[in-house]
Amino acid sequence: MKKLLLGLAIVAGSLTFAQTFGVKAGLNISTISGGDSKSKAGFYGGVLMNVPVAPSFSVQPEILYNGLGAKADGNNDVKVNLDYISVPVMFQYNATPQFYLEAGPQFSFLINSKFKYNSYSRDGKDFVKGFDFGVGLGAGYFFTKNIGVNARYVAGVIDIAKEVNNVQADGKNNVFQIGLTYKFNK
Fold it and tell me: What angle is formed at CA 183 by the lines to CA 180 and CA 185, rounded to 5 degrees?
């Protein structure tokens, strides 16, 4: 038992020194499924920690601000603006030292929501759930040791609308992200 605990402590200690921290930011193109909506542009940005767990595999948890939402299809000027703090946990396969593929869950917590119709604006927290869950798939490429580009698609798994008057509306957040990543030197 002592050998097992010592071995776990050594592995945990080596992972602590191998991790890399960084920042990332970019463009969101988001929609809400289940209706006739058009995509809406937004911003995302935050911090990351990359932890190698094997020569070709790493785990990358992130904390991101995510601006999501959608526009209504048709003549009406209707916009849904949703602001989340998202925590994706990406499992990355490093195909080469520069190129990686990733997949993993994303947990999002609503911090603000607005419904806009022409010049009228209304808080949407009565209509939108405070938690969202999605699954992300993506890829990235590092031009240098520190600077890279990344692309990711996150498909919503749960409906984001609250039940109102015994009616549950369908609609899941879906977002395509493209951006830049900067990893700090060790």
Answer: 150
